Amino acid sequence: MRGLSICAGLLAIFLGCNQAMAAQVFVTKYASQAQQKVYVVKYKSQADCKVYQVKYSSQAAAGKWYYVKYASQADLKIHYVKYASQADLKVFFVKYASQANCRF
Fold first, then answer.
1. Do 51 and 91 form a contact (C-beta atoms < 8 A)?
2. What are the C-alpha distances in Å from 67 to residues 11, 13, 14?
3. pLDDT at 2 over 80
């Protein structure tokens, strides 16, 4: 029975990682509406994810986020938080698409 709960926990972590790498992103008004709470760090070395913001939805991929207008279009709903201690995910926005990646 204990092994089953460990597997369920690992599955939840894996699914959370996949969501963080999702491409179509919607920013919620309230933290309670979000799947992930995100904090933007000052330095690359502090980030769980290095994100590049793309201009077109067709360019979206893992680590390359396209912000959508409606929640129903999103793969991932996020809420930006004020403090790092509130965050589920720490991101750093990179200048070039080739720099985008996530480490978990």
1. yes
2. 27, 24, 23
3. no
